[in-house]
Amino acid sequence: MASQRIMLIDNEAGLCRMMEAVLKDQGYLVKSFTRPVQAIAEFTAGDYDLIISDIKMPEMDGLEVLQHVRNRDPEVPVIMITAYATVEMSIQALRRGAYDMLTKPFEPDELIYRVKNALQHHELVEENRDLREELSGQFKFEKIIGASPEIRALLEKVAKVAVRDTSVLITGESGTGKELIAQAIHHNSTRRNHRFVAVNCGALPESILESELFGYRKGAFTGALENRKGLLEAANGGTLFLDEVGNLPLSMQKTLLRFLQEQEFCCLGDTTPTKVDVRIISATNSDLSAEVAEGIFREDLFYRLNVINLHLPPLRERQDDIPLLATHFVREQNVKFGTEFKGLTPEAMEALRSYAWPGNIRQLCNVIEATMAISDGNFIGLPELAQLIETDKAGQSANQADYSSALSRFETDYLTRLLRKHSGNVEDAAAEAGMNMATIYRKLKKYGINKKEIEKS
After folding, report:
1. Nearest 10 degrees: Cα torsion 146, 149, 155, 158
2. In this predicted model, what pLDDT tens digit does every residue of 362-409 receive, in sequence order?
3. Which candidate, 363, 209, 201, 167, places its Cα nearest to that of 285?
4. 111 or 271: whose pLDDT is higher?
């Protein structure tokens, strides 16, 4: 787990250095500023977990700093520091969104205590918000688009599996919607009021994956400066989804098997077992039976995970669902971008149906988004589609270079127009696009879009 990041703003250089040293000793990543104007110029949403700012400063006082921070990132906690605390000032700061007030002079222990409180409170707020968002967006079966016999048979099986609290292995090619099925199982089970936690077993190195799953105790390894819960403990009472479970290293397979047998595990650096109640749903796009035969996946773990198997057919085997999916994605993009596309021309729809879709539903969604970006009329036609997939030879691979290029052109053009519309104001642009500010900043950096030039234009 990455160290938490703190921005420190105080025009007293000596006090700033003292606070920075104290916080760094606690393992925090600290960037300090003695000029608030410079700090605000460098601040972007998502870069910091906590802001600490003095109130009485030249150029810009702390309440102005607080307002600028709140405008860009409404969630990050802010601690205000002052030597002239009054009831009126405290009320004003708290009304403007400050989390806490710290009065000078203060001891290092008090600073550490306030900082830990603010960060823990922020983590709790984020966890509760994530849970509310999950529960408010319950994955009912209408979220899974399809009317083909294959998908109807699958959903009937999912409905029966959901209420039985046992391990499920979901198989299928990449992009077929395995995580969506896992979420549907969770949200239609008795565990629906607890968390659904997903981890991609193929995306993390073995050492990081072990600490992410099982957590660690302070001092367990270099950089373990405090106790940290793992994903298994975070999912207590709910569901843990292990995506690409076939990529688990053999050592981790042994540890996971023990957990499935005992429903308990030991954090790194701890000898006392932690007991949790978690349902395991796993998914893979590889042939685990073959991996068992080759000795790269444990047979006993395979049988533990594969109590119930759900196989998702590739999109090429459910051609009747392609028009439904395409229409759904067009509707989603219309809502997201305020467009009024009516659908696809008959020729374009036939091209979609005859294409092999090696990337399955995920690829279809991306192709619809990109073709809507480069189409001039209200219908997606064959010429636009031909820039992204082979339309004359069914079963050929997608022209990924053309697709990536079209998507890049779309995002660059869309972000530039959006920012120009809002005079470079990223917060307003993010609100209209339904994206968070940190995502927009990442895309600006990815495509080399200069926000300041847009502000001048």
Report:
1. -140
2. 999 999 999 998 888 888 999 989 988 887 543 333 444 455 566 677
3. 201
4. 111
Chain CA centroid to CA 88, Å: 40
Output 100 or 456, whichever has higher pLDDT.
100
Question: Given this model, what pLDDT does residue 95 score?
Answer: 77
Token output for 206? 């073995």
The dotted CATH code for 142-313 is 3.40.50.300
Residue 48 burial by CB count (10 A; 0-12/13-18/19+): exposed, middle or buried? Answer: buried
Of 179, 181, 176, the residue nearest 140 (C-alpha)? 181
If pLDDT is split at 50, 70 and 90, which confidence band does 186 have? very high
Please answer whether residues 171 and 314 qualify as being in contact, where contact means their C-beta atoms are separated by less than 8 angstroms. no
Matching residue, tokens 């050492």: 207
Architecture of the CATH domain 5-131: 3-Layer(aba) Sandwich (3.40)
From 343, 366, 357, select the one nearest 391 (Cα to Cα): 357
Residue bearing tokens 């793992």: 230
Token pair 């397979």: residue = 253
Instruction: Show the DSSP H helices in 137-230 as ranges.
Output: 149-162, 178-187, 206-214
CB distance 387 to 374 below 8 Å: yes
